[in-house]
Amino acid sequence: MQGQMWSYIFKRMLLMIPTLLGVLTLTFAVVQFVPGGPVEQLMLELKGKGDAAVSGAESSGGGSNYRGRQGVDAERLAEVKVLYGFDKPPVERYFMMLKRFAQFDLGESYYQHQSVWQLVISKLPVSISIGLWTFFLTYLVSIPLGIAKAVRDGSRFDAITSTMILVGYAIPGFVLGVLLLVIFGGGSFLQIFPLRGLTSDNWDELSMMGKVMDYLWHLVLPITASVLGSFAVITMLTKNSFLEEIRKQYVLTARAKGLTEKQVLWKHVFRNALLPLVTGFPAAFIGAFFTGSLLIETLFSLDGLGLLSYESVMRRDYPVVFGTLYLFTLIGLFTKLISDLCYVYIDPRIQFGAGGGS
Question: ABC transmembrane type-1 domain location, by residue (predicted)?
Answer without folding.
Answer: 124-339
